[in-house]
TrEMBL record:
It comes from the Bacteria. Keywords: DNA-binding, Phosphoprotein, Transcription, Transcription regulation, Two-component regulatory system. It comes from Marinobacterium iners DSM 11526. SUPFAM superfamilies: CheY-like. This is Two-component system, OmpR family, response regulator PhoP. The keyword Lipid metabolism does not apply.
């Protein structure tokens, strides 16, 4: 998942970036409301974390302008504890959820996970496809009740495809949303991840959930699964 962190407190911004990177997010970050506006206009993100008290442009004005321009990525706003007016104004500006500072990291991660799932049309943290299950909260994949060991990159690839089940996802989109800027975008590493995933998820060739759409990318099938 690709996240935009907008926080003018450099220490907190660094902590947020480190936390989300450890959880597999690809991060872009800024402490400026105006720069965040530009980033949101030029690039696609799966989620944004926005502090309300930003220099140059407030977090509320930032969110309002994003929404007026049709940008629909989920937004979690950070507010001062007990400042209920900020919470209400944030939601009215177009934010999807809020979190008061200081906060527990597990609550932040849970809220972000829920927002990403809901934006993809999934209410439950468990994504299912026949005997295959992916727990987005625990980051565990199982097949017929047995855990499937995946690398971090393999997990990210599978999660993104399952959250977007039924859609054709190009290699460029997968790379943009899942991997850091220093990732070799011209390599065939993504094809290796897909091949390994197919081997691990479909050892007897009976499930075949990931299909290749020639010249376009990959698609996770809808037929055998459910959006719980």
């Amino acid at each position: 998942m690709k996240a935009l962190i907008v926080e003018d407190d450099a220490d907190l911004r660094r902590q947020l970036c480190n936390l989300l990177e450890q959880r597999g997010y690809t991060i872009e970050q800024t402490g400026s409301g105006r720069e965040a506006l530009y980033l949101g206009q030029e690039y696609e993100y799966d989620i944004a974390v926005v502090d309300i008290g930003l220099p140059e442009m407030s977090g509320l004005d930032l969110i309002r302008q994003w929404r007026e321009e049709g940008h629909t990525m989920p937004v979690l706003v950070l507010t001062a504890r007990g400042d209920w007016q900020d919470k209400v104004e944030g939601l009215e500006a177009g934010a999807d959820d809020y979190l008061a500072k200081p906060f527990h990291t597990e609550e932040l991660l849970a809220r972000l996970n829920a927002l990403v799932r809901r934006a993809s049309g999934h209410a439950s943290p468990i994504l299912r496809y026949g005997p295959l299950e992916l727990d987005t909260a625990a980051r565990v994949v199982s097949l017929n009740g047995t855990e499937v060991r995946l690398t971090s990159y393999e997990y990210r690839t599978l999660e993104y495809l399952m959250l977007n089940a039924g859609k054709t996802i190009s290699k460029a989109e997968l790379t943009e949303h899942l991997y850091h800027q220093d990732y070799d975008r011209d390599s065939n590493v993504l094809e290796v991840f897909i091949r390994r995933l197919r081997q691990k998820l479909d050892p007897d060739q009976s499930l075949q959930p990931i299909t290749t759409v020639r010249g376009l990318g990959y698609r996770f099938a809808l037929g055998g699964g459910s959006a719980a």
